[in-house]
Amino acid sequence: MAEPDPKSRTRSDYAFFLSYRTRWSDNDQYSHINNSIYYHLFDSIVNAYLIEKCGLDPASSPLIGLVVFSYCNFFSPLSFPQVLDLGLRVNKLGNSSVSYEVGVFEEGKDAPAAVGGYTHVFVGSVSRKSAPMAKETKEGLGKLLNNQLYSLCSATEPIWPCVRRREARSSENSLKMSSDLQWLLLRKNNSFIVKRVPEGPVFSKEPGNLRNLNSFKFSGLANSKTIDVKEQNGSIKIVTRKTKASPQAVGPAYATTSVRPRSGGRRALGVAAGIAKRGYRSDLRTATLARVSALAATQREPKPSPAKKIRGKKAAAFLG
Length: 320
Known about the structure:
One of its GO terms (cellular component) is ribosome. This is Thioesterase domain-containing protein. By secondary structure, this protein is of the alpha+beta class. The chain has 8 helices and 10 strands. About 25% of the residues lie in helices and about 25% in strands.
């Protein structure tokens, strides 16, 4: 199969995204981003993915990736102060080498301004000799491999009928997309956004958003792991999405823990803290505890206020 024209790429061709706000120093004397900056962008998204998704620590890993080939195709100029979206895919994956492709998009546009990338060969950090990449690294990179669907088909079978049949048999996998791509599609276009102000935060009211902020961290739409805290029939309910749930599942995809009103605030806080201790969205621990605490406070019966004591002349007149 012939390689597609890089200029025909769109955002849907990439599975992992990273935003980049251009700097004044990125511009050259011609008032556009200098060509050398694009290679800094390639390094940024590739290493971000290796660290976040592949368990590779460049500072301490026994293997490191050395660049043996790089390229970049430029289609339209970019300049400060534009915000860019970088998309990453893997075109080839071997035992010790990988070829990346990076699409550089202006925010809000579907056509790339540039497409480039490079090839990494993994070597020992001390020996500098080629070595097979770690299993976790290869599995992480395999998620970005462009032809992983085609590899399921036999060499003698027509490719597209095979692909369609595989998609029909495994609709769950065909419906999955990365959280980064979902956020890229939803962050400015969803019905839950309730307020837009230039100088302040953007709020959102979707279920599972503990802070009601329109951000990737708190998004109840883009994240595969979410925590929702709500009050229902006098009880505090903590709802989490199961990590292995099918994309089509609705009710069965969620686990609900109920805390009865008589259990008290400590019980509710203990349940909320236990979710983070099990390693489920530990970054949301503070937000979860804050919402549970606020709901528990509303369930407490207010203490009766003591009667005001009459003092001074009013007291003397009353007693007299």
